[in-house]
From TrEMBL, chain A:
It comes from the Bacteria. It is a multi-pass membrane protein. This is Putative ABC transporter permease protein. Keywords: Cell membrane, Membrane, Transmembrane, Transmembrane helix, Transport. Signal peptide: none annotated. Belongs to the binding-protein-dependent transport system permease family. FecCD subfamily. PANTHER family: ABC TRANSPORTER PERMEASE PROTEIN MJ0876-RELATED, FERRIC ENTEROBACTIN TRANSPORT SYSTEM PERMEASE PROTEIN. The chain crosses the membrane at residues 12-33, 73-94, 101-123, 129-148, 160-182, 194-218, 254-283, 295-317, 323-342.
Automatic annotation (TrEMBL), chain B:
Its EC number is 3.6.3.34. Pfam families: ABC_tran. The gene is fhuC. It comes from the Bacteria. Residues 3-234 form the ABC transporter domain. This is ABC transporter ATP-binding protein. It comes from Leisingera aquaemixtae. PANTHER family: HEMIN IMPORT ATP-BINDING PROTEIN HMUV. Part of the ABC transporter complex HmuTUV involved in hemin import. Responsible for energy coupling to the transport system. Belongs to the ABC transporter superfamily. The keyword ATP-binding applies. The keyword Mitochondrion does not apply.
Length: 349, 253
């Protein structure tokens, strides 16, 4: 079998395993909610919309499924996959099991950008919340990257901790700015609305968000998957990676920017959703081991299914009310993370 | 593969760690680097491996300047075992050795039977086949060291750089690793603390304070006078009653 054929076969096999699971999760996302809808109804709506079949379906049900639940489930899936993959990459690059997308200050920056646009009125109403969040995220990331570089982040294992410290400094600064803007300008309603968004909220998700989130998650995943072997080579640090022929600086720049971009876009669509990028990579490692060629697809799939599930829970746990999804992920994620910490400590001895 | 250092200097923040060091190792030779702590052995190793760029001077690998090769091309020719490379990943012994195949793999050249054979061979060479499925965290310092050496061997390098490879090893594995390195057809540069082990190599270079103070055959480079001066001790050459090769014995001056 030629190399290209082997590669294609690997891809097809992976897709055959992953797609049914993803499809099932999205189907569940479309079915479950305040009004439960039957799976055949969901499929009829899909056939109607995608193939123009014209099957008889209640237009209200069709509206709920097509305009609300499906885009929501798809964006949740894309977002969960992107955050999980980002966590995998950052944990490997920074050689820090506690690294996650938020460690780089990205979510704090996104929040500041969002409140700057919505509450402080930056841009005079011409800018959207997503636009503000996205730019805030990139700005914060730039700040953290420059600070880390000035603090001597780089080759050694000790220096890898510098970027984490810089991330903490950046998060604190941008969180303070957010609090400052809210305290100075917001009325009670606005403050409540923005808090809801800050904790992660999929309520406003529509099809245009799908066309942004899904292709971006796929492209980002492909970039990261392409670097899987390089990430394996980071197991013993950057010097060891360099000695194994990895162009360390280039890989770091490409992957950090890919993950920063993914996080910034996802946060700008759904707000801050914590713990996915931290816990899912550990869970996936537990399932398939630390090798990144298997870890990358496993983490993406687990992250997607987890966030679709968390979204379902957030919609049904309190009747008549939607809980911010960040609350659900944190309530599941924090105990899971505690277990990982304790387990890791036991096996390390 | 021949390696040559041409008047290498290296300084960090104005402090010279290495000044004007020139040496070479011929194909198949084992060159021992000896010197006190902080004499620049590890720095020289890093320059020879292309992990750091010399402030002045050049490294030539098979007559080619190292600076002109890509990272990947260097990794296909040079393998280095540094001191204290550790990880918190729950990785198996075998996958550590598999990392050595990285420079030979790409998207269009995926893992093959040949790679598996090289990994098996490397594990056999360091007598670690029985440990292949063990997790890194469960291994002793010596076992980890042998895995790093196996990883380097799996790279199939023309030049092997070993920074104190016998650290952490019991005497059996010290002798067997050195024996293995000498028997390989590759050029090897080995930083050693045990001067009597250095005596068994083809050539020896002695570093002190970032300068090369002696080099040549072990008998030329490791004279009792040189050793006494460089290490601040008194060294004496002795022969045991069995009539083996001469070795050095030391006491504080």
């Amino acid at each position: 079998m030629s190399a290209a054929a082997a590669l294609a076969w690997q891809g097809v096999r992976g897709a055959c395993l992953a797609l049914p699971v993803l499809a099932a999760a999205v189907l569940a996302g479309a079915m479950i909610g305040e009004t439960s809808l039957a799976p055949d109804l969901v499929l009829s709506v899909l056939v109607n919309k995608l193939a123009g079949a014209g099957l008889p379906v209640d237009p209200v049900d069709q509206g709920i499924i097509w305009s609300y639940r499906l885009p929501r489930a798809l964006v949740a899936g894309a977002c969960g996959a992107a955050l999980a993959v980002t966590g995998v990459v950052l944990q490997a690059l920074l050689r820090n099991a506690l690294a996650d997308p938020y460690i780089l200050g990205i979510s704090a920056g996104a929040s500041t950008g969002a409140v700057a646009v919505t509450i402080a009125g930056l841009g005079g109403g011409a800018l959207s919340l997503s636009f503000g969040a996205f730019n805030g995220a990139l700005l914060a990331f730039g700040f953290v990257a420059i600070l880390a570089r000035a603090a001597g982040a780089g080759s050694s294992r000790a220096a890898a901790a510098q970027i984490v410290l810089a991330g903490i400094a950046g998060s604190q600064l941008f969180n303070a700015l957010t609090a400052f803007i809210i305290a100075k300008s917001a009325n009670a309603d606005q403050a409540r609305g923005i808090m809801f968004w800050l904790m992660g909220n999929l309520s406003g998700v529509r099809w245009p968000d799908v066309w942004l989130a899904v292709p971006l998650a796929l492209a980002g995943w492909m970039v990261c998957r392409f670097h899987a072997r390089a990430l394996d080579a980071f197991t013993f640090g950057t010097d060891s990676a360099a000695a194994l022929g990895i162009p360390v600086r280039r890989v770091q720049v490409v992957l950090i920017f890919a993950t920063a971009l993914m996080t910034a876009v996802m946060v700008s669509i759904v707000g801050s959703i914590g713990f996915v990028g931290l816990v899912i990579p550990h869970a996936a490692r537990f399932l398939v081991g630390p090798g990144h060629r298997r870890l990358m697809p496993a983490a993406a799939l687990t992250g997607a299914v987890f966030l679709i599930g968390a979204d379902i829970v957030s919609r049904i746990i309190i009747p008549g009310q939607v809980l911010p999804i960040g609350v659900v992920t944190a309530l599941i994620g924090a105990p899971a993370f505690a277990i990982i910490l304790v387990r890791g400590q036991r096996t390390a001895r | 593969m021949r390696i040559e250092a041409r008047s290498l200097s290296f300084s960090v923040r104005g402090k010279a760690l290495l000044s004007d060091v020139s040496l070479s190792a011929q194909p198949g030779e084992t060159l021992a680097l000896v010197g006190p702590n902080g004499s620049g052995k590890s720095t020289l190793m890093r320059l020879l491996a292309g992990l750091a760029r010399p402030s002045q001077g050049d490294v030539l690998l098979a007559e080619q300047p190292l600076a002109r090769l890509s990272r990947r091309e260097i990794a296909q020719r040079i393998a280095i075992v540094e001191q204290q490379a550790d990880t918190a990943e729950r990785i198996t012994a075998r996958s550590v050795v598999e990392l050595g195949r990285t420079p030979w793999l790409s998207a269009l050249r995926p893992w093959s039977g040949e790679d598996t054979r090289q990994v098996d061979k490397a594990l056999r060479t360091v007598e670690m086949e029985a440990f292949a499925q063990r997790e890194w965290a469960t291994l002793s310092g010596g076992e980890r060291q042998r895995l790093h050496i196996a990883r380097a061997l799996a790279q199939q390098p023309g030049l092997l750089l070993l920074d104190e490879p016998t650290n952490h090893l019991d005497i059996h594995h010290q002798l067997s690793i050195l024996n293995c390195v000498r028997n390989l057809k590759v050029t090897a540069v080995v930083a050693l603390h045990d001067l009597n082990q250095a005596l068994t190599c083809d050539r020896v270079a002695v570093l002190s304070g970032g300068r090369l103070v002696a080099s040549g055959t072990p008998q030329q480079a490791l004279t009792p006078d040189t050793v006494s001066e460089v290490f601040g001790i008194t060294a004496r050459q002795v022969r045991d009653a069995g009539g083996g090769a001469p070795h050095l014995s030391f006491h504080l001056a």
